[in-house]
Amino acid sequence: MAARTTIYNKILQKSCNFGTRSMSSWWTHVEPAPKDPILGVTEAFLADTNPEKVNVGVGAYRDDNGKPVVLECVRESERRIAGNQNMEYLPMGGSVKMVDETLKLAYGENSDFIKEKRIAAVQALSGTGACRLFADFQKRFRPESQIYIPVPTWSNHHNIWRDALVPQRTFHYYHPETKGLDFASLMDDIKNAPNGSFFLLHACAHNPTGVDPTEEQWKEISYQMKSKGHFPFFDMAYQGFASGDPERDAKSIRIFLEDGHLIGCAQSYAKNMGLYGQRVGCLSVLCDDEKQAVAVKSQLQQIARPMYSNPPVHGALIVSTILSSPDLKELWLKEVKVMADRIIGMRTALKENLEKLGSPLSWEHITEQIGMFCYSGMTPEQVDRLRSEYHIYMTRNGRISMAGVTTGNVGYLANAINEVTKSA
């Protein structure tokens, strides 16, 4: 009996040792992920102890004191909903009221598409979540398709469609020499893409370049895409924040709708309402008719179910309360214009400061671009010098977040940029 117990204990010990070794080696092959190029800038900025440091890498609005802002319309909305709502799950498609109000912003207050119930729409986890839902929808129901993405674009776009396993192609967009739109090459890429391709378009305030097509150029893009049977998917993260006028910022979408396109659209309230952490967004897909819209919405909900099941409620309540209350909506329109005007004003100030310093370069593109970001044209090496010599932080592609520029630092920033670029 003792011998049998000894043998059993040895077997048990070996089993335990094997199990320990096996479990401890599960993740030894996992390497640290590369740092996000944008978030890494903020980390480096926070670690810098220099009192003159400047962060023009963050993609979030700041006031002229460099402080985060909570809009008064948001505060008042929170006061009105406080204690009046339960915390039950939203439907998989999210807040119907929020979605309805959001569609009016993109498609028009009196849109026939809304009246005819031709739009399949669901609440999403901000613009990122809306893009990801659509990418998965594209993969599931158009598995043979690919997505054409502009060069450059918001870096996360590539991650989203990659992880959804949708093949990616690129199309020309930015012209480095003119620091404007490479319209001729863009049109050639649209013409040469296989019929029925998917194209990712920034509705306004292109990130990272701040370069948007003119209204006439949008019309030509729409015409060419229609003739090729392409599907346009708009990412609209800056409606209202670009020009100060939500209607003007939705002009590209309206042009495509007037031309008879069926479109997809991702919307977000991070930038234009300052609801960054609430992750409030919407995905919409315009369909042939109401029956098709019902089917598409049901599939979008099915895709969302294993991802996150239901979207969060608080941010959706804030948005729906603002947009459905005439006084709060009017206040929001005033506040979003104040934000847009401050950004536009800082563009002018930066350009004027550089010109006063006698910079040999042209800085016209600073004021010709629009939205939160200015694609400065600086090289990675020049950006590195800004960081090491002047404690100014931005992404290495030379993208300046105009939200980080204030009346207090614009002169310092201009002087530093002039110093690192004057020998270019």
From TrEMBL:
Reaction(s) this enzyme catalyzes, per UniProt: L-aspartate + 2-oxoglutarate = oxaloacetate + L-glutamate
Q: Spell out the family assignment given in the record's similarity comment.
A: Belongs to the class-I pyridoxal-phosphate-dependent aminotransferase family.
- Please verify whether the record's keywords include Cytoplasm: no
For this protein, the record's NCBIfam families field holds:
PRK09257.1 (NF006719)
Q: Which GO terms describe its biological process?
A: amino acid metabolic process
Q: Name one GO molecular function term.
A: L-aspartate:2-oxoglutarate aminotransferase activity
Q: Which residues form the Aminotransferase class I/classII large domain?
A: 52-417
Binding partners and assembly: Homodimer.
Tell me its EC number(s), please.
2.6.1.1
Q: What is this protein called?
A: Aspartate aminotransferase
Q: Relay the record's extra comment.
A: In eukaryotes there are cytoplasmic, mitochondrial and chloroplastic isozymes.
Name the InterPro entries for this protein.
Aminotransferase_I/II_large (IPR004839), Asp_trans (IPR000796), NHTrfase_class1_PyrdxlP-BS (IPR004838), PyrdxlP-dep_Trfase (IPR015424), PyrdxlP-dep_Trfase_major (IPR015421), PyrdxlP-dep_Trfase_small (IPR015422)
For this protein, the record's Pfam families field holds: Aminotran_1_2
What are the record keywords, sorted? Answer: Aminotransferase, Pyridoxal phosphate, Transferase
- From the record, give the transmembrane residue ranges: none
Cite a GO CC annotation.
mitochondrion
The record, for PANTHER family, names: ASPARTATE AMINOTRANSFERASE, ASPARTATE AMINOTRANSFERASE, MITOCHONDRIAL
Please name the source species: Aquilegia coerulea
Q: What is the lineage of its organism?
A: Eukaryota, Viridiplantae, Streptophyta, Embryophyta, Tracheophyta
Task: Tell me which cofactor or cofactors this protein depends on.
Answer: pyridoxal 5'-phosphate
Keyword Transferase part of the UniProt annotation: yes
